Amino acid sequence: MRSNSRILVKLLKRHSHTATPSSRFSTPPPHEVVEPFYDLSDVVVSASRDPPSPSPWLPQILSLLDGSPSMESNLTSFCNKFLITLSPNFVSHILRSLTNQPLLATRFFHWAHSQPSYSHSLHSYVSLIETLSFSSSFDSTVFQNILQEFRCRKFKLTAAAVNSLLRSFAAVGMVEELLWMWRNMKEDGLEPSLYNFNSLMNGLVNAGMVESAVRVFEAMREVNVRPDSVSYNTVIKGYCKVGKTRKALEMIREMEAGDDGDNVGPDKVSYMTVMQACYGEGDVDCCVRLYHEMKEKGLVVPPHAYSLVVCGLCRQGKVVEGLNVFEEMRRDSCGANKAVYTALIDGYAKTGNVDGAMRLFERMRQEGIKPDEVTYGAIVNGLCKGGRVEEALGYLEFCKENGVMVNAVFYSSLIDGLGKAGRVDEAEKLFYEMVDKGCPPDSYCYNALIDGWCKGGRIDEALALFKRMEEEGCEQTVYTYTILISELFKVHRNEEALKLWDMMIDKGITPNVACFRALSIGLCLSGKVARACKILDELAPMGIVLETAYEDMINVLCKAGRVKEACKLADGIVDRGREIPGKVRTLMINALRKAGNADLAIRLMHSKIGIGYDRMRSVKKRVKFQTLIG
């Protein structure tokens, strides 16, 4: 076969000859139509040897597509200079070469259309539509304009064009265009293939029309087109996309059963799609079950599946199980990645095993896996929780010096650790350093510093930070209010504490057990037991049931030696019918014992108080708890 370079030289010589004044031609010769592949006339002869070689004009034309303002005029000059006219096939080939360059593709398409003796074919339109639809910078306006032109041309469709167009429309979830193509395909006498059905379903799923995709799936069998693994996996993807993970699992079971003679077993794509959905929903147990199914069936478990299982188990606090899966991963010659190591390090750190986390961290580095800011954040969090603040600060300096981004979680862990260590001024300094670096503090960070101020007895600084938190639009959580309410009661600023409680309720923040405990303890110790009970009663219609609220109040009153008030509260509980007397009696005995008042606890244990009755004439009256103290 002749070389491309020789042909290009020959063409250049021809151009040189036609350009000389002594040429015997009175008019220039006609342009030559060029195809994307060289020497197509010899395809039959050369098919047994090598595939056709690309045209020498391809790199020349592609080099001119530079996006400059003069790009179109440069293309025209080049074609005129070398007397060439591009064929529709050549244009299609160029367009398919411009993946992720939609603007260049569109400009080239319009330029080609403006050239004399040229007209776009079905395949040049199809090529541009495919290039635009799979571009990462998809522009729907440009796409619709091209599509409108295409519709007006009323081309007779081919099977190859239909396949490409359905795939393109499916990629961007354009349902109307998909259905239009489906109708036109049938009008042109083309029967839908399995590939066509799969493309249609994929488009419907991408557009969120999962039930329609399921109906198409069911219709396939009616026209004797058997679904393949792609068909099943498309429906599975759809169910997972709309949160119907149970339905997706049913599809896997249907694939296993081979209903209707499909004989299509679930593959790793089927499992991975559902595993990812289960992980996202927090259903780690299902994720782990599917992982074991893959192993039992001999399917190759991809690295991401291991990551999901290890990360999920660590998220549940099952770090040992996570480590076992990690070791399985290594035995299967599947290299551990950064996400898996980070999940294990974080899991060990959160369970208080900082030394275990550090060993994994060193192992990770020895294997050449570079830790990122998330990994360092997990290490710092573990060190701070373990009281090793100085080591954590050392990692902060290391990250700064080595260009590792220090994120909000990183700073928050250090601020929390410094605050708990009583080094609030250093925590405050880090807080403002974080702000100056454009890293907005989150609720956890604010709460850590507020807690530090409160523990240091600096409630006014904590309240100022609380106000700033509100001004910055940072979410104030129930934990934020709990810290401040507890501290305000400790410093006898009861009214301010109650105002904060009311503010929390007005904002729709649901109090938890810890928050009400802070409020009720404060009220009980300040002699406002009735107020605490009233607030507790107000929570019930809101659907907030705090199971241990009365127990907490009785405990704190007994601990403070205010047994009379504790007895009064216990009687009030029984009178309201909120608790059976026996349960309140047990509660009182335990509270007195824990408070060190064993004599009263024994006396209560051997009396009829709370459960017995005294006959007063013809009426039985329950022996009240207040008789305990005479």
From TrEMBL:
Keyword Repressor among UniProt keywords: no
Pfam families with a match to the protein in the record: PPR (PF01535), PPR_2 (PF13041), PPR_3 (PF13812)
Alphabetized InterPro entries for the sequence: PPR_rpt, TPR-like_helical_dom_sf
Keywords from the named record: Repeat
PPR repeat residues: 158-192, 193-227, 228-258, 267-301, 302-336, 337-371, 372-406, 407-441, 442-476, 477-511
Family statement drawn from the similarity comment of this UniProt entry: Belongs to the PPR family. P subfamily.
Protein name: Pentatricopeptide repeat-containing protein At1g03560, mitochondrial
Organism of origin: Arachis duranensis
Lineage, highest ranks first: Eukaryota, Viridiplantae, Streptophyta, Embryophyta, Tracheophyta
The encoding gene: LOC107464033
